[in-house]
Structures are given as C-alpha cells and as structure tokens.
Amino acid sequence: MSPSEKPRRIRLDPESYRRLHTEIIERDGWRCQACGSLRGLEVHHIQHRSQLGGDSDGNLITLCWGCHRAIHA
Predict the structure, then answer these.
(1) The dihedral of CA 12, 24, 34, 30: what is its sign?
(2) 27: domain range?
(3) Contact 35, 67 (CB under 8 A)
(4) Using one digit for the tens of pLDDT, what is the confidence trace for 9-68?
(5) Based on the number of CB atoms within 10 Å of its own CB, is 35 exposed (0-12), middle (13-18) or buried (19 or more)?
(6) DSSP string, 30-71
(7) pLDDT on residue 64
(8) pLDDT interval class at 1 (50, 70, 90)
(9) Cβ burial 7-30 (10 Å sphere, 16+ → b, else e)
(10) What per-residue confidence (pLDDT) applies to 26?
(11) Could you tell me if residue 50 is inside a domain?
(12) Total domain count for the chain?
C-alpha cells in the first residue's frame, strides 16, 4: 500500500452488524471480558472506528456498561 492510500476498514450494514454483535457476545460466553459481569453487556471496538477500526470479530470484545465507559473515560 502506498503512503497516499488509506487502509480500508470493514463497516457492516446495520443488520449484519446486529448479527455480528450477537455472535461476539456468544463467543465471549455472555460475560464482560474485563470483570466477568453478565449484566449490561455491550460490544466494544478495540481499535475505535474513528481510528479506522473495523467491524470485524478480531476487533470486537464484550464489555459490561461500566467497563466500557471506563475504557472511554
């Protein structure tokens, strides 16, 4: 890739993203991967979308609401 080319990220349509969201939570055993909580689960982009992080299973992790907010704080 030349320096002038931007890396492409995977960005799914809303329905495909909802399916992937469920797959990620199932993959992670319906638990927050930081604290183990079973409540308030969300899917977090490890590399943020604003930093070209894509909607791929390798870039997503299940976190509870509190751990997700702490990462973004």
Answers:
(1) positive
(2) 14-72
(3) yes
(4) 667 788 998 999 999 999 999 999 999 999 999 999 999 877 877 888 899 999 999 999
(5) exposed
(6) TS-TTT---SSEEEEESS-GGGT--SSGGGEEEEEHHHHHHH
(7) 98
(8) very low
(9) eeeeeeeeeeeeebbeebbeebee
(10) 98
(11) yes
(12) 1
Residue type, 25: I
Lookup: tokens for 2: 């030349």
Give domain status of residue 29, yes or no.
yes
Q: Which two tokens stand for residue 5?
A: 């080319």
Under 8 Å between Cβ of 62 and 42: yes
Provide the pLDDT for residue 70. 97
The residues pairing with 43 across neighbouring beta strands, listed in sequence order, are 62
